[in-house]
Structures
1.
Amino acid sequence: MSNQIIGFTFRSPTIIFGRNSLDSIGSEVRDFGDALLITGKSAMKKAGFTDKIEDLLKKVNINTHLFDKIVPEPTLEMLDDCFQFAKESKIGFVIGLGGGSVLDAAKPIAALYKEDISTVSEFMGKEFTKPGIPFIAIPTTSGTGSEVTKNSVIKVKKEGKKYSIFRDPLMIAKIAILDPYITATMPPKITAASGMDALVQAIECFVSLKANTISDLLSINAIEIIGKNLKQAVEDGQNIDAREKMAYGSLISGLAFSNGGLGAIHGLAHPIGFQHDVPHGVICALLLPYIMEFNKDICKERFALMAEKLDLDVKNKSIQERADKLINYIRNLIEEINLPTKLTELNIKKSDISDIVKDTKGSSLNANPRKATPEFLTEILMSAL
């Protein structure tokens, strides 16, 4: 790592972190007016957290309007339905309770609420003209980092793509509440995929061309915490210590990449996710060791530092050996938490690769430490079949 302090702009919500931190929501929002609670179809209701939030808000005389129709990989049309419901409900603030899909759906509802529009769709391609209403992010998974980012990744069916439809500091949550007891409701498969998403984000950020002094501190810390606790969280979801550490690791991973960039994995993940209906964390995890091999010669010093932070047996090993040790550790971790390691396991064939590469573009790809040309991307995907 360089001794030079690199200039940066750092953006973040107010963060309330810790066990039972959800209990503080009433005192934080008591003057905001009526609430729109956006969540998924059933998980949080079954776990009791939807009712708990409504009860906590009722104690401070806040009425709650519930929109519980968000599904994984939400569409622009779904946002339009939610936006219309929000307008009809005459709300003062928005709460997003869920994983990355729910939070990404909730952000634009709050950010666009005061714009002179009747649907989210009609704002596509326009610039924000005024601040929206407060957005409170309550993540239920430890993975996406959406609670601290300024963008919203949504499926746009008519364009056949999934991408950040809006990206603006006005999208950042006013408050993010991270309570590890909420994440304890997540099953092992989601815990594994979301946790690997957070780890991928931290690793990509640490070697990103857009990384800066503060993102380096956050990302290397996130790599250490997630790398040491993910397997335990998957195997024993009720271990609140592991859940708490994963929640923290995911949080600082999100803070890191939202200020320091990502890389080729995320450039590839969005077209694969859309074209083949693959969960984001699953495809990010699968691609990780292949992209690390691709970047290794340029990033081996940073990979070696990661290996040290993860307490791998690298004493008296060369930089190259340490980098290789790290990549092997990542491969083993993915297998141990039962995530796929080959594209064929996701029904992706050789004939699909050209379409994936054609749709791979954007800021994440441009921030990759080694230039990822279409030829290289094709080679990487072929090796992952």
Note: The first strand starts at residue 14 and ends at 17.
2.
Amino acid sequence: MTEPDHACEVLVVGGGPSGAAAAYWLAKRGHSVTIVEKNSFPRDKTCGDALTPRGVKQLVDMGLSTTLTTFHQVNGLRLVASGRELELPWPSHAIYPDHGFVVRRNELDGIVAANAVAAGATLIQGCEALTPIVERGFVRGAMVQPEGGEPYELHAKYVVVADGADSRFGRSLGTFRTRDWPFGTAIRAYWESPRHNEVLIESVLDVKDRKGNVLPGYGWIFPVGDGTVNVGVGLLSTFRDFKSVNPAHLLESHAQSIAERWQISPDQALCDPASGRIPMGGSIGPIAGPTYLVVGDAAGSVNPFNGEGIDYAYETARMAADVLHEALSSHDASVLQRYPRLLDDEFGQYFKMARLFARIIGRPALMRELTRAGMHNRSLMEWALRIMSNLLRPDEMGPAEIAYKAIDKIVRLAPNA
């Protein structure tokens, strides 16, 4: 870890996926960047640990392709529901690879942060950004508190807010969640399993509570390749009894339901379950101020279709870095106001469609019928996988792209939800 200066061009609050990626792209262009991360690596996060092709591309672009090959590669998705299984490879694409990886977050996040340091960024671990420094209405850094040390001011021309789903620093700048939009909760733990080397990740589409009720969300089993599997449940807020669900009980039910198939002992998890609440679908705003930008989970950039967040964290960070580079090069802070438009152009309509989908499947009876119909139609599920994993092809108009365009025309007429 490099000893910090008390001034830099860009201060990045948070060293997770979005913060480390933003720092990498800025440092690579020669800018002075300091990351302040309140924990110390390695540190864990509530996550399924799966990297889809979108996330893999971003890591490869950051020069980490060789590092990725040391982890467990997965080539597609197994869907389980209604007593049936469908095995689907990752869709072919002109831009994204045809494979993903499963990498524990307590390894991945440190690797990406170290990569930013190798590009020239400064990383301060075990140091919390307490409050923004505001001068004449402009954010110019943060008061930071090193663990066991005295607080000091760290000044910067610009600030990237990347402190995750529970973004305290963002809220201190006035960010808020659109409360009537969907959000999710997730819980996961690790179990030993002889199937840890499976080349497919698995999604259970009819995850059930202790009473056997199907709930809107999905259960997952992601093989880590190190003797363990990551088992978890993601649940959407869009059904009537959401607040009454106990996530720990739901994880127990899910583990018991897959115990025989995955050869795990449900009562012998290797760690205590980790859980968290996830803002989704671009539900956090404002994401740009005169001298700051908000990225990743702090901006609610999680896909409501499937709960993916890491790939969008990397992508929003890269967009933010592009904008900040232009602002620093041109000495024009007004460039930062392009950032919300960039995100809206890239994800706005897609996230709107996903939020409406989350509301539709919030009706258990409808969820059951959609799942049952889909599991009996492989082609339909292949199209759904391409849409829900955001792997639509820009260079080819296949069935999934045609279906998406048709739905998009309807969604454009619908109110925001």
Note: The first strand starts at residue 7 and ends at 13.
3.
Amino acid sequence: MRAIISYLIKFLIGGDKAGELSSLVGYTNDANKFSRYRVVIIPSPFFRDEVYGTERSMPQLPLNEVEGVPLLFGSPKMEWYDDIWVVHADILASAYFLLTRYEEIRKRNIRDEHGRFPGKESLPYKAGFIHRPIVDEYGRLLRRWLRQAHVQSAVEPEPQIQKIWLTHDVDAPFYCRTFRNLLRETLKGTGLRNAWKMYNGPLADDPFYTFPKLLQLDNSLINSVGSKRCESLFFFKSSGSSMKDKPQYRLNSRDMQELFLLCKTENGTIGLHSSYDAGKTPSLIAHEKELLEKHTGTPIMYNRHHYLSSREPEDLDWLEKTGITDDFTMGYADIAGFRLGTCRSVQWINPENRRISPLRLHPLTVMDCSLNESDYMGLQYEEALAYVLQLSERVATANGELILLWHNDIVATNGIKTNTSVDWHHKLFAAIIEELKKV
């Protein structure tokens, strides 16, 4: 546990001086050791062997607060011990609980129809802080406590979104580009002439081929804030045989090769959209990654699960084994917000064996359909825009990453819609881009 505690302290402090300042923070209830530190955090029972992994390790609602921030473990009590600031608020156990998805291993019986842990069953949602990155707020408290203990180098950074990831999951790249699509459109009354035009005409005429439009918006923001602060990612499927993985597109087709070339030309990074099947059987990820690398000619380092169906925390081990370095799955489908309690990328900590992995998790802030679907948030346009901008402000305050997910098919503006589409998603994405140019 020593390595994990050290990592958590450094993560909370953040910044270039995290390593140096972390030595001034102790996590102990041994008063004989207090003099080694400037700030001491008193451990709650959470990490004790007889508590960890049992019902006793779960936070109880209503939660306490420490200086206005929800506290999962410990108490708000703080006091001086000589010139050492002693805090009974166990922000380390609280941060660990959220960052590791610990709640999900204690509640394996709670899953939705896709095997996912629902956001509306989570502690952050039930306790009313899903819209706040409270792990990052713990970091702000810790820096304040260090300054209070006369460590003036624990400065508070200027609020700014450090990185914007504009991500796009390519579930259905085309609407009518196969013979089966042609037959479908003809039978449902589109008419053979119109269906043939989509099937055999220029790729740009396909209703779902919104990639040039998305890349234009992405690049307008990249040009405004700089390529170091903003990147464009496209996640492609390479396999999967279940109904949820349809449509299965051929990576070696002329249309797909043209799409891959467009992404590369316009500086859109290609990542793996691991299949619904792979969410159930994570050992499939290695083969899917190899297929995508073969057909794109590009090393694949980034992943996001289809349907956000990274089902169990320990399943992330399979991503690490395949050489994936960064995962972008960690958001709830049914509620936008801060699933891991943070808006900064964090190394995955396996809550089962308590091992720190080199795999980095990038918490998803907003998925397009989370905002409007009636089973999810059910927002209208103005409400959705206001909520996304509120989350963006939280990210800026925490100096974190803003990660947006907009599907190519959901922004279609030509009358062709998915089952979950509304007619304002292109307008909403464009409005968000314009607002982000001001940050």
Note: The two ends are 39 Å apart (CA to CA).
